[in-house]
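Researcher: Quick sanity check before group meeting.
Model: Go ahead. Protein one:
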Amino acid sequence: MRVYLATTPCDMRKGFDGLAAQVQSVLKADPFSGALFVFRGKRGDYLKILAWDGSGMCLFAKRLESGRFVWPPIVEGRLQLTAAQLALLLEGIDWRRTVAAEPVRRPEMV
């Protein structure tokens, strides 16, 4: 699954249409592509995820009661995340410090 993170804070009052317009204008992507688009609030403790499931738009939101999500530096554009990094982000864990395990090498015959 493709996951795109908008790196600049977004107005969290926006709904389906406002965030879909943000995907098109700022992220230069198609909101109906089936990818997940993650938006952050100014304070960093609130996020929204916009997704197209084939029959309609879905909008998910999460606000942390204490602490903040771990965000990359604020720059223009987008950042692509893996599904595992998104899961860590949603849990409030620093997803930037995760390193994929080395691929297991197949044993060679001697």
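Researcher: Fine. The other one?
Model: Protein two, sequence then structure:
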Amino acid sequence: MTVRAVQGGAGCGKTHRLMAMLAETLEAKPLVDGQRVLALTFMHGARRRLSDRLRSVPGLDGRRECTTIDGFAWRISRRWRGLANSLGLPPVTEEQFNAVCDTAGALLEQPVVAKWVASSFPIILVDEGQDLGPERLRMLVAISQSVELLAAADEFQCLDQTLRPNPFVAWLGNVCEPEGLVHVHRTNRPGLLTAATAIRAGNAPANGQGFKILTGAGDPLAATMLANAIAWRQGDDVAVITPAVQGGYAQRAVIRVGQGAIGQHGNGPFSIRWEGTDHEMAGSIVAALNLPDVADAVTTLQALGELPPSGPARAAVHWVRKQVDACGRVAFSRADVERVISRSVTFQRQHGHSQSHDFVAMTVQQAKNREFDGVVVFWPYQVGGDAEQKRRLLYNAVTRAKRWCNVIVQSPNILNGPPFT
């Protein structure tokens, strides 16, 4: 089998080229009955976007599956747990993500498992491969011997400092000659293009068409700058992005802009929604759960019924009733109920489509592989990592913008150090 790969900076069309590679592979080696294309990513958000892109490939209706590599690893581990036991592999739980992937890698190294996967998924796509650590890479190395593997990656967009040098990108270089993309399609604004190029090269970004660096010393000034950026560009979808939430610099500006008009021009209010993680969403639900460590079915259902209505709460009720009716279960632990809620939150975020918002706020990690008309980057004092890490954080934030980007720094002193020098 073969490995094909594409590499390039943000906005160069790696995913678009990946879809073209898939179409070429399907033309040369069409799927037969019972076969599908498997697409893998590391983050759930990237999975949703990749799933949308797969719809553009002709002939794939009902013949594609898109999931996270962790979800795929758990499926392999559960399906072949008997073999795992015979190989002496330690038992794993779903929450042990690295251990599950390592177990799945060991199983995929067994020819019978690799052939079983390849019989259903002869073509496997991997997007944002630079985010995959050694355990997940082990899975792909093993399965690449049996399938057509298509991958996209950009080493500079990896924000995990432990993945330097990047193992996935190094492996690609050893097994194939990746295609290199250099032309940016996401934007044609000269200032944005020049700033991104400078940051990536380790040079100082400068103001230009579509790109500004502003000093927002003090919360009122920072909030005013945010309100003005939104007001002057009505109609754009705008994202507030920050590399660090510590200190609350970005949060305070978002709150103030939502409270009312601000600044000399009286712009605002603007409602900006912060995006949460799966863990945070599940935590907000279980925090309101009035349930002891162990309870009978009636008490458990009553406690779940008192929660604010939500999909995860309804899913937990359904699970309890099914356990009672199908298994005759009489006692439920709080830990089990919380686990069901957590899984339901993850599933909902994986497969659901949330309401569109014009103005959202998020971390750089949450913004990866996304794009917005306008981006406001809040750069506070509390940004960790070495100079290289700070360059990568700023690059990932700035390159989310299609039309314009304003970078607001908390102090002018910040401009005297990386990534601004």
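Researcher: One line on it for the slide.
Model: The first helix runs from residue 14 to 28.
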